[in-house]
Amino acid sequence: MKNWTVDDVMTEAVVSVDGTASYRSVVDLLVERRISAVPVIDEFQRVSGVVSEADLLRKIEYAGDEEPRLFEGRRKRGERGKALASTVADLMSAPAVTVLSGTSIPAAARLMDAQKVKRLPVIDDLGRLVGIVTRGDLLKVHLRPDDDIRADVGAAIAGAALAAPAGNLEVAVADGVVTLTGRVERATAAATAGSLARQVPGAAEVINKLTFDYDDRVIIGSGIGYAAR
């Protein structure tokens, strides 16, 4: 089974800017390319930050009210300061939240959620920009053909060395919904098959209808269990 990573769904032809770019040039770039943010890179192609529409909007949000106020929090003070910025180096959010090439799609999704970001610049082990992945890109795995998902589920289960099934184990996929049917020897084998199916990229839901000969979850290793009804 192929392990999908950010490399499989990212955009490689990344629009980026350097820290000396002006406020107006970045606004023009975002409008022209119909994008909401760009990575900021240095002379070695390393990512130093990201400048987004939210960063640019500070000039509008704090227009005429750029001076910091007494007892104002550090974050608010920084946002207000961006209203006076004229170059990307002063506008960008830094350090950038990035992800290494080869990172799994679930790991990238968890990072986006934890950091509350909509995109992740993808970097190599030297910190150089190699792509960018968005929330929408991560959802591309759910556009995989049902036949591909079914093949991967079957391969994952076959390669797991589960106990020999007492009957046929069948995999069906319709619109990304995986259905497992058949009979296996142990309850834990049925549960493992369901878990493996859920890990396959593109599996939106798993309906586990597998039955089993005996329930080895009661006292594992004791030989005591209950036959499936």
Helix-and-strand structural type? alpha/beta
Q: What can be said about the biggest beta sheet?
A: 5 strands, mixed
Radius of gyration: 25 Å
Class of the largest domain in CATH?
Alpha Beta
Give the count of helical stretches: 10
Secondary-structure element pattern, one letter each: HEHEEHHHHEHEEHHEEHEEE
Ranges where pLDDT stays below 50 over 5 or more residues in a row are 225-229
The CATH homologous superfamily name of the largest domain equals CBS-domain
The chain-level mean pLDDT equals 85
Q: What proportion strand?
A: 25-35%
Helix content: 25-40%
The CATH architecture designation of the largest domain is: Roll
Do you know the CATH topology of the largest domain?
A: CBS-domain
How does the overall form come out from the CA principal axes? Answer: elongated
Total number of beta strands: 11
Count structural domains: 2
Task: Kindly report how far apart the N and C termini lie.
Answer: 33 Å
Give your account of this protein's structure.
- The protein is α/β, with parallel strands linked by helices and 229 residues long.
- It folds into 2 domains: 11-98 and 121-133, CBS-domain; 144-227, Histidine-containing Protein, Chain: A (2-Layer Sandwich).
- It is built from 10 helices and 11 strands.
- The protein has helices at 6-9, 23-33, 53-56, 58-61, 74-81, 88-91, 105-115, 135-138, 146-158, 187-198; strands at residues 17-18, 37-41, 47-52, 99-100, 119-123, 129-134, 169-174, 177-186, 205-208, 211-219, 224-227.
- The strands form 3 sheets. Strands 7, 8, 9, 10 and 11 form a 5-stranded mixed sheet that branches. The protein has a 3-stranded mixed sheet with strand order 1-2-3. A 3-stranded mixed sheet has the order 4-5-6.
